[in-house]
Amino acid sequence: MTAFPTDLSPLTGRYTIDAAHSRIGFVARHAMVTKVRGAFTEFEGDASFDGADPSRSGGTVTIQAHSVDTRNADRDKHLRSNDFLNMDEYPQITFVSTAVHRSGDSSFDVTGDLTIKGVTKSVTIPFTYEGTATDPFGNIRVGLEGSLTINRKDYGVIWNAALETGGVLVSEKIQLEFEISAIKEA
User: Fold this and answer.
1) Residue 5 confidence (pLDDT) above 70
2) Which among 22, 28, 33, 179 is least surrounded, fewest beta carbons within 10 Å?
3) How far apart are CA 108 and CA 91, in angstroms?
4) What are the Cα distances from residue 147, in Å, to 15, 60, 86, 92, 177?
């Protein structure tokens, strides 16, 4: 892995997300006392990066909603239902970037349209560049990590249950997590 370069031009190019070495996950509060973590196991994405002018960079990610995995089959079935993701009607969650801004020495803010359950909202995901490496197969890989918190009700994901002790079963705020390994195209 290399440190963040001052000259970004070597990073210029097109990239494809390596889903086998990446994670798109989420965290939600459950019963107001603990966190439940999950991930989507099927997704794809690509990006272009312009080292001379990062604002001309962009990318897309498509997540298959049915691939939600919280390590609990009953909970996953409920998340796929109309109460949450309604995957039969809305099989994909998408993110399409609209702007990229360098926010620090090794960080970028990526703004774009996040669509969940047919509702599109503009969000900004702060990403940190984690480094570049050449893997044993000669592929140039770039690592990025980012996260943001959304309100699931903004996307029409409104199901909940009140608790006798106060509060609700599932938090409205959901943290989305992105751990990305992207391969530079030759």
Assistant:
1) no
2) 33
3) 29
4) 20, 16, 24, 19, 4
- Residue 22 tokens read as 């990446």
Hey, what are 78's tokens? Answer: 């409920």
Q: Select from 147, 143, 127 the least CA-distant residue to 183.
A: 143
Which SS3 state, helix, strand or coil, does residue 10 take? helix
The share of the chain scoring above pLDDT 90, in percent, equals 71
Question: Residue 1: its pLDDT value, please?
Answer: 47
Which residues have C-beta within 8 Å of that of residue 47, sequence separation ≥ 6?
A: 14, 15, 17, 57, 58, 59, 60, 97, 182
Half-sphere exposure of 41 (CA within 13 A, CB side): 7
Strands (E), the chain: 13-17, 23-30, 34-40, 43-49, 58-64, 68-69, 92-104, 107-116, 119-134, 140-151, 170-184
**d(Cα 74, Cα 164) in Å, to the nearest integer?**
23
What is the band of 158 on the pLDDT scale with cuts at 50, 70, 90? confident
Global pTM value: 0.91
Q: Which CATH superfamily is domain 9-184 in?
A: Lipid/polyisoprenoid-binding, YceI-like (2.40.128.110)
pLDDT value, residue 33: 76
The full set of domain ranges for the chain reads 9-184
